[in-house]
Amino acid sequence: MEVPALVAKLVALLTPALPLLLQSDGTSTSPVLELLEPRQWQEAQALWERLGPVVAAKPELREAMGDVVASPEDEDAIPALRQQFKKLLTADPALAAALAQIIAPAASASGRSVTIGGDTTGSTVVTGDANQIGQVEHSGGTHNGPAVGLNLGTIIYNGQPSDAELEHLRRYLSRVAGKLGQLRLGGLSRLDNKGLLLSHVYVLLATTELTHFQRGTAEILAQFCQVDRDGRTITVNDDYDPQLQLPPQAIIRGDVDQSSHEIVLWRATLASEAVFNRQHLVLLGAPGSGKSTFVRHLAWALAERGLDRIDATTALYGWDDDERLLPVVLPLRKLAGQLATVGVHVATVSAALRDEMTIEYNSRNADTVLDKALDQGAALLLFDGLDEVPIDAIPGNSVDRATTLRAVRDFAEVHPDVHVLVTCRSRAFSNDLQELLGWPAETIAPLTLGQIRHFVKHWFTELVERGSLDHDRAVALIEKLVATITADHDRLREMATTPLLLTMMAIVLYEKGELPRDRPRLYEAILQQLLGQWDEQRGGASLAQVIGDARITTDDLRPVLDALSFQAHSGATSQDGRGRLSARDLHIDITERLDKMGVVDAYRAATRCLVYFNERSGLLLPEDDGTQYAFAHLTIQEYCAGRHLLLGSKAVERVMEQRADDRWREPIMLGIGAIHTQYASMAADRIE
User: What is the pTM of this model?
Assistant: First the structure.
């Protein structure tokens, strides 16, 4: 939240309560309290708890507050108070971040009261939650009812959009917001039947780059940190400790300037800041580091902002509140496929973007909306998953990784004012690709304990709000997960720094009440969820029971799953790296494997098996009207493919064949981990 907007909200929230807050004893018997709603007083108290000590040390700020209380009719009192707040928060971004976090819940709970006076023709009337209402006249006609999207529409069309143009824009943005605003778990948990609100569980991601936070002497910076007598050791105060706080106010480094003896404090640059500050950017990260989720959240927030819904949930750290861009997400695997079939041209990139808007979001007149946004530099193109494009071309199916990246670069050169983001796994972004593209790259940092605490709290709180968990059990699970992670300084803590694995931990803990201690075992626990153990416990049927043979256990089916995963990963051609399997071939393959196990009527059993995958476990999902199947989760595909690679015959030879392909690095490492935890002697033999 930018300082001017924060100042306005602070003044609005604090002014009614100032007579009480400024009392030295903070008594709650003041008649002022009777004039405040309980929620107003609670919000003011929360702010004052953080702001009170600062006010006590700032006589000019306290005086401005006193003037507002003493002379509420004075027209100069409120502007003077705003000016004092502006000076304070501009000089102290950490305090601004802390207050913005406190205000966020209050802002989302605020009402929709509107005061309208005078002639509103040609104007925009905004409610408390930033939705435009009433009748708004412009050159394209008169809008009755919500006029959301008008601000972005004016930017894209370089003037007042017509009714039809505004409707097309709103239609697209609404569908982007609706589709990307839900966090689907894809069968990882029974929670997936409803989905979770992404904005409620999303945690701010930081990069490995640093941003200047504060500079000054030890005395000036005493509210942030303490410096020992030799001037070399800096201890961060709890309010700015990365083990407790989110990146905007977490100090992660402190330096002592030997020439001036001043202390320089640094915080992490947020991923959203990096995107805002760069016209073109490559965002790198490890597997499961949150790259794609960041893209989804950024596109969702921009869609909501494009609909003029500016509030705490749609705020993007480092962005101006009035910044609006048209988000267009395109998986690079899709683009690579279109380049292979249509041709490597700039126009092909434009067509792929248009098709994504039309097919995935049912956009109307996507060509015009996209072209106008590109012309005005009012679009943010989010090209996700470069690492999922094959290193080498697959004739008739996909161009290679370098060709795909070159096409993106050429498109950006034709549209120099457009903002572009490319995401990729770190190890897949080679020096050659970096040199080819020539854009700056930043890397998503592992989660800090402060981010982990934030996610865990909000994850289980969301489960309470949607009725999946009672409050007392949520509190117990929050405490248990945080305590387990913080107590373990090796395996689980390292795993928890990866958003995907942290999410899996939360799911397993919710479902089973306990956590495995390493990554392969965690994936095993997730697979057991997918294969039906929890369903059996709840009175349903496990996958083995669905097959209809009492001799068959889930363990008997693991080789089948591993082999299918290996086959899928070997021929991966889907947009996100998940391999597609022909439904017909898959059915025949499963039938043959079940027949070898002695299952009676293996063909029908295979049919039931596929239905279970589709409707119950969310493990393999049908695509292309059921003619193809793909694994629901790339990570599970990689883990099982690695198991098959390492557990099968000629494992060493096959590993050596795949070692140069970065798409196989993760499966190989996971496979080694799997056999190490389950077959220790075999692991030693394979590694040797």
Answer: 0.65
